[in-house]
Amino acid sequence: MRIRLYNTLTKSVEDFVPVSGTSSVKMYTCGPTVYNYAHIGNIRSFLFADLLQRVLRTVGNYDVQWVMNITDIDDKTIRDSAIGSEIWKKEMGEQTDNPNENIAKFTRFFEKEFINDITNTGIEQSHFYNIPRATEYISEMQDLIRRICENGFGYVSEGSVYFSLSAWLRQSEYGRLFAVDIEHFRAGVRIDADEYDRESVSDFVLWKARKEGEPYWDFQISDENVTGRPGWHIECSAMGHKILGLPFDIHTGGVDLRFPHHEDEIAQSKAGYGLETANFWCHHEFLEVEGKKMSKSLGNFFTLHDLMEKGYDPMDIRFLMLSVHYASVMNFTFSGIESAQKARKRIQDFIYYLFDTTQFGTENASIKHEVFEALADNLHTPKALEHIFSFINQTDTKQLSQESKESLIEEFRQFNNIFNVWEIAPKAEEIIPQEVIDLAEQRIDAKKNKNFAESDRLRNEIVQKGYLIKDTKDGYTLELSER
RNA sequence: GGUUCCGUCGCCUAGUGGCUGGGCAGAGCUCUGCAAAAGCUCCUACGGCGGUUCGAAUCCGCCCGGAACCUCCA
Fold first, then answer.
1. A35: number of CA atoms within 13 Å, CB side?
2. Residues A206, A203: Cα–Cα separation, whole Å
3. Predicted model pTM
4. A275 to each of A81, A177, A263, how far by Cα in Å?
5. pLDDT mean over A201-223
6. Which residue is nearest to nucleotide B25 (CA to C1')?
7. Is pLDDT at A262 greater than 50 in this prediction?
8. Where are the alpha helices (DSSP H) in A286-432?
9. Which secondary structure element, helix H or strand E, spans residue A221, and what is its range?
10. Predicted local distance difference test score (pLDDT) of residue A181
């Protein structure tokens, strides 16, 4: 099915057509800066990218080469890996007097935690073509910076290298993703980096001069060695070019990255390689917590870690996030997780009913077309879920034919290739301890003898042991109670 | 200050000018010693004030409230 996506470059929903002209799609996601545990805003970001690549695979039938970088060198990782950092954990190892070693130990730790977090939210590592670390592409970045300078769009100043926006604007566009009022922008920018000598305030840094105690790399450019480290924007340009080749199909990120990060990335790649970056730029909206911006000062800042420690299931968080359109501001609430849990379970129960082979009817049903149509329409997951719920409401699984149940199982398996929050299998038999079964049997006997005080006492005891007893027409069922 | 987005049933979320969107919560009924579960049914909302229109949640204006970006940010 043809996929339609909102493209920030053209400000409109467009039919997606791969650059390659084949079924191969190349997609780049701006990954995390690994200086702390991922917060739920980060999680939304990567769930969006995951949704997109899964829809491309399942609905669009494409082979997706998905690349997501790890930013393991920047101001924050430098700050928090430095000697004396309060964030340093003993699991990271011993700090040494070599800042390059410290930052590597520090970022490897949070990188591992990050992979762990996204795995918990249903993102599969096998779906990645590559998860490159910025520090492993330093020479590619340096090569790009040299090219930018040779082409006349970069200059060295006091040991740093800058991109000359004024030179670039004389021959090319800037601000296609985000309406930047260049004149106003120049005038309004706060000059808080006095140590840098800039040609104009809107120039951005490609390579930052070494500072005492910070990690650095040698860099030979125009007969001088400017030791230092890469600027933030350059890494995506270099890695995208090296790993996927330019232009690739889709570049994803949060709305905040449109400017300056993505604008600068586009300018750098064009200025250095002479190539466009990507055909489609897809940006997701932010989330708020209980109607307010998530921030540490408001006390509404949550990492996935926090939520899991509170006992929330990351699958419910995934479902919750997929029940909001990616381009809308999402209001993250705790009651929202609770309702997501119940809603997810309702669909799960329906799937279990499909596996019930004790009863068949004659009716046939299908919902795949409507669901795929919604997903193909700019990843409209809320609409897709609406179709699924309406379908469940009007479908009596007891009336379905055997063939229809089997084909519906296959349909839900495909939905789950995207949502990835359900179990496509018969409901597992729960192993109930014999002592609980004995209690339940005793309770049934007490009930038969109308000894309700005793039966209530036994039911209470069963609940105490963490099991739920439900009476049915001809007996009872036992199951593990939730949380 | 500049640029932009959003206010939809108790809560969360879709929404294409006309036709009771979906989820959660809640209510009623069936079942039941009671409860739980299950099944059936009910719950007609669009921030405020104007305007355009035969007709507005949807278009326009103003106001109120929330958010984002402009500076590191997902």
1. 15
2. 9
3. 0.93
4. 36, 17, 14
5. 88
6. A339
7. yes
8. 304-309, 314-322, 334-354, 368-376, 381-394, 402-419
9. strand A220-221
10. 62
Determine whether the distance from the CB of A300 to the nearest atom of strand B is below 7 Å: no
Among the listed residues A92, A85, A77, the one whose alpha carbon sits nearest the alpha carbon of residue A32: A77
Q: Which CATH number fits domain A4-136+234-289: 3.40.50.1100, 3.40.120.10, 2.115.10.20, 3.40.50.620?
A: 3.40.50.620
Cβ atoms A382, A343 nearer than 8 A: no
CA-to-CA distance for A460 and A315, rounded, in angstroms?
30
Report which of A97, A288, A260 is spatially closest to residue A176, judged by C-alpha positions.
A260
CB atoms < 10 A from the CB of A432, how many?
A: 16
Q: Which CATH superfamily is domain A292-419 in?
A: Isoleucyl-tRNA Synthetase; Domain 1 (1.10.730.10)
pLDDT tens per residue, range A277-287:
999 999 999 99
Q: Give A93-101's long-range contacts (Cβ < 8 A, gap of 24+).
A: A99/A213, A99/A214, A99/A215, A99/A216, A100/A215, A100/A216
CB of A257 within 7 Å of some strand B atom: yes
**Å between CA of A222 and C1' of B14:** 57
Domain residue ranges in chain A: 4-136+234-289, 138-230, 292-419, 434-480
pLDDT band at residue A482 using 50, 70 and 90 as cut-offs: low
In which order are the strands placed within the sheet that holds A330-332?
A: A292-293, A287-289, A330-332
Q: Average pLDDT, stretch A157-182?
A: 82
Contact A38, A261 (CB under 8 A): no
Q: For strand B, is any atom closer than 7 Å to the CB of A30?
A: yes
User: Which distant-in-sequence residues (6+ apart) come within 8 Å of A273 by Cβ?
Assistant: A144, A147, A241, A246
Q: Which residue has the tokens 């809320």?
A: A382
Q: pLDDT for A442-459, tens place per residue?
A: 898 888 888 888 888 888
* Burial tier of A320 (Cβ tally within 10 Å: 0-12, 13-18, 19+): buried
Q: In the predicted model, what is the mean pLDDT of chain A?
A: 89
Contact flag, residue A6 CB and nucleic strand B, below 7 A: no
Are A358 and A405 in contact by the 8 Å Cβ rule? The answer is no
Residue A183 reports pLDDT greater than 70: no
Q: Which nucleotides of B are covered by protein (CB under 7 A)?
A: 1-6, 11-15, 21-25, 31-38, 40, 66-74
What ipTM score was computed for the predicted complex, to two decimals?
0.92
